[in-house]
Inverse folding.
């Protein structure tokens, strides 16, 4: 039978202090992690809000002109070489009227026609102005020559003739205007824009490999060979662009300003036979853990996991002949379907 002393047994004062100290130490260690999570949640919310504002601007643009802006366009030789990003056309709908007016009527920049010079002109003042709404607060940027963007136009699941498609495969295309009526798959099932990273070392989301062989155009899976075993950084033997993805918000070329829905979010990007406005694989990606945020044509945003179904990356992407004048289902799973405007795909939960 237990004695009275045994029945009263429990924590001694010393043991209670020890347990309290351990709990306090654990909480102290977890505080920085909690703060980081809270900061990232706030940054992700701001990034989401940026995309929603871009979506509203696109709708207002469409209401005004009856179409979306070209993903890449502008004036030709002697002007901006048809490389001006669609973000420029959206400026008046983002409360950036003064900047837009300066670009379209550049009286202070002798020799530059309305619309500005090529986006790589470092001396042109408007190209050096930062637009806060174009930048995700979670992203880092190492460049100095231009002002970045973390949001790019979606061109669908194509790798060939990206800059001169005769017909749009995605919600946007260089040199082409698209309309709500072109979105046969439904505006809530089609990506308009998606996050991209900006250069930070050899990190995959913010960089892209350049001068790669044409075999990638028919087998996008080859692009995976450019990264290390952890798939977070490009291999040291791979040549990269000097300034990375999204390095210049005014440039509508594929490297700085476009995405295709072939490899899933946070995958590598590969430019074929050149550096910027060339064919290739241009993946979406962001600095939010596990995926990226996309803007749907309807104007809403969604977070897309990097684990989304993206089909078989070794499958040849469709050519313009495949989808000319007809629907054509994407071979790249749910991700590919979300990027196309006319594939007859059913609604997807993603």
């Amino acid at each position: 039978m237990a004695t009275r002393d045994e029945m009263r047994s429990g924590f001694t004062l010393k043991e209670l202090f020890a347990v309290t100290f351990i709990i306090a130490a654990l909480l102290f260690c977890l505080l920085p992690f909690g703060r980081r999570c809270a900061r990232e949640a706030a940054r992700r919310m701001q990034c989401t809000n940026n995309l929603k504002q871009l979506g509203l601007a696109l709708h207002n643009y469409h209401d005004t002109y009856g179409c979306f802006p070209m993903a890449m366009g502008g004036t030709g030789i002697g002007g901006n070489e048809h490389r001006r990003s669609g973000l420029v056309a959206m400026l008046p709908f983002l409360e950036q009227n003064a900047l837009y007016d300066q670009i379209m009527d550049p009286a202070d920049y002798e020799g530059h026609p309305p619309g500005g010079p090529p986006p790589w002109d470092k001396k042109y003042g408007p190209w050096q102005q930062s637009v806060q709404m174009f930048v995700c607060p979670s992203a880092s940027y190492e460049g100095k020559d231009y002002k970045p963007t973390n949001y790019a136009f979606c061109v669908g699941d194509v790798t060939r003739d990206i800059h001169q498609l005769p017909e749009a495969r995605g919600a946007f295309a260089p040199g082409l205007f698209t309309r709500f009526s072109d979105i046969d798959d439904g505006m809530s099932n089609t990506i308009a824009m998606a996050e991209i990273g900006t250069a930070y070392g050899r990190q995959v989301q913010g960089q892209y490999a350049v001068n790669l062989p044409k075999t990638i155009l028919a087998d996008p899976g080859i692009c995976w060979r450019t990264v290390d075993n952890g798939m977070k950084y490009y291999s040291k033997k791979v040549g990269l662009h000097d300034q990375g993805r999204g390095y210049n918000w005014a440039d509508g070329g594929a490297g700085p300003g476009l995405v295709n829905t072939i490899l899933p979010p946070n995958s590598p990007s590969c430019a074929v036979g050149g550096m910027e406005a060339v064919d290739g694989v241009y993946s979406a990606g962001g600095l939010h853990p596990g995926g990226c945020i996309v803007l749907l044509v309807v104007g809403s945003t969604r977070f897309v996991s990097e684990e989304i179904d993206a089909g078989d990356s070794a499958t040849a992407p469709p050519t313009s002949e495949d989808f000319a004048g007809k629907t054509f289902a994407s071979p790249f799973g749910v991700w590919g379907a979300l990027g196309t405007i006319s594939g007859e795909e059913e609604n997807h939960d993603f």
